[in-house]
Amino acid sequence: MFAWWGRAVVRFRWLVLAAAAALVLVGAAWGTGVFGALTGGGFDDPKSESTQFRDRTIAELGNQDVDVLVLYSDATAAVDDPGFRDPVTATLAKVRALPEVASVTSFYDTQSPALVSGDRHATYAMVQLKAIDPDGKTSAYETIEPALTAPGITTRTGGTIPFLHEANKQTSEDLARAEMFSLPVLLVLLVLIFGGLAAAATPLMIGGIAILGSLVVVRLINMVTDVSVFAVNIITLIGLGMAVDYALFIVSRFREELAAGHEPPAAIGRTMATAGRTVLVSGLTIALALASLLIFPQSFLRSMGFGGLAAVLVAMLAALTALPALLAVLGHRVNALRIPLPWRRGPEHTGGDGAWARIARSVMRRPIVYAAGVVVVLAVLASPVLRISFGGFDERVLPPGSEPRVVSDAISADFAGGTVGPIEVLVSGGGQAEAQRLASTVTGLPDVTGVQVTASEGASSLLTVTYHGESTGDAAQGVVRAIRDLPAPDGVDILVGGRTAADIDLIDSLVAHLPWMALIMALATLILLFLAFGSIVLPIKAVLMNLVSIGASFGVVVWVFQDGHFADFLGFTPTGFIEPSNPILMLAVLFGLATDYEVFLLSRVREEWDRTGDNTASVASGLQHTGRIITAAALLLTVVVAGFASGGIAFIKLIGVGMIVAIIVDATLVRLLLVPATMRLLGRWNWWAPGPFGAVYRRFGIRELDPHPDAAAKEDALTASGRAG
């Protein structure tokens, strides 16, 4: 099937390239419009108590969200001085009159001491917007932001909407910077890997198709359901990374077939039958791993799944269509524009006596020693996972100088009982008397610094609860859980919301869905690898290998980002916990990437096993043929990820560092040492498939049927006249 596909692409190469060019044009002209259509937020579980709190509060009391906090300060004047008071009150009067603003609450209206700093040189106003949905609020904030500045007074904005706005803005800037950094470095490295400009340009071309094509797919999905802006990050990361991996693998195999004496059409057929098959298995496996994100109720995780699925599948299809079509046009000219590199022996040097094969034989002579040593190293790297602690993200994920973070820090430090994320309690039923009774009870709970009834309508009231510490801290979480544990009188509903409650609900929801995600990834990998290799042992071993490399990555992430090691060097503020959606996203992406390298290696090992029936020789030859490619792919993907790790958002940095560690560990300790050692220990059991399983593989396996011994020669003769040229 795969060789036939290669011949079909050669025959219709110009049509395929025209279709790819059309996709690029549509992506550039229409697909990029998705940036203005994507939504923000999406961190809530629709069934959680905090979401029910928000919906019922709006229904019973109207919109009560405090969307923007405006901090006014002056180093010399106090809040009561006319030079401070007059410009601030005049500014707030104009803000109240804006059509986007529902209300403004300030010290000058309420005389509340909670709105004045301890030294009385700062005060903050609370602005409520008329919009209800996050996108509407963000748009309204962008409109009113210039009007918030009081002349002559230092003005900074913070709170929920400025925080989300700044996070999205910083993420977009990080994305652009990552692309500017990674693309030139990728080109240089590809030139060094291939030794020529023509071959080096092909992976970047496939990367461009993957990214623009994915934007088209995501915009189509966005026409059916909401997609978060975070989908764009994973499109660039996965789309570019996988496109480079797949193109590297296919172009390397094509050049190898050319070096073996095959004409370009035949070389493409043989490449599709081997490397093309591998790319298909890898792409489907990674896509299914990322599809596991779709089971989560939070739209931002589902959006990551949509973006990842689009990126992988478009990269895979581009590598199986546009790339062989381009290679058919280039033919032997794929080696054009060579750059003399004295250390290279050429892409065709893939014999069985190279350095990679010698490493494999060394490992297989002492498999127990190597396996035990690698396991010990990986266990040490993974050990910090045992003390992982989860918590929600707050303004500390932003760079220290960003305005929302400055406002959050100032209110927490300088205002008595101040917090940018108060706990809110809806008391539905019982009237104001029940609300006052509950307020008195909540006031006596540990770590509570104040309780106020901030809204009432009919039988419903809203309480605002302040507390010690950060909204993500143990004290705040303890207050939320304590309020939720309070018994509600008959006929009264008590719902707890706010930022801390939403964080707790998010963690609980993610933990509840995590086992199903793991089950989907494991089953998908086991089934696809069985169909690819005809063994029930290798898929199980692959899943275990993935887990040990991912475990090592998670351990390093905990040691760095939770414990705070290298915080100054990497430029982030440690919080003492990990936001739980980050490791979940890492798990989906890294599980797929680890399987990608496993498929690259085992595909060639299986090819050699079918040819020789010698397990040890097959492993050595397979590693010799793929070791350089896997290492190069890992290096290139590390460059792509490094651009994200250098950004200003802490959780993007965390994912980047975690991926870099996993890629390095997987491409060195696992694929280079642990896999050969375990395959030597298992011997012929590597390829074991009991009778029924063997029958299933023969019937449904993803494999190329063995050709007649003279098929290759006949194919060369038949297609010589059709050489691309």
UniProtKB/TrEMBL annotation:
All copies of domain SSD, residue ranges: 210-329
Domain of life the protein comes from: Bacteria
Location within or outside the cell: Cell membrane
One cellular-component annotation, GO: plasma membrane
Lipid bilayer topology: Multi-pass membrane protein
InterPro entries (UniProt xref): MMPL_dom, Mycobact_MmpL, SSD
Keywords: Cell membrane, Membrane, Transmembrane, Transmembrane helix
Pfam families given in the database record: MMPL
Transmembrane segments: 180-197, 227-249, 279-300, 306-330, 368-390, 516-536, 543-562, 582-602, 629-649, 655-674
Family in the record: Belongs to the resistance-nodulation-cell division (RND) (TC 2.A.6) family. MmpL subfamily.
Descriptive protein name: Putative drug exporter of the RND superfamily
Organismal lineage: Bacteria, Bacillati, Actinomycetota, Actinomycetes, Micromonosporales
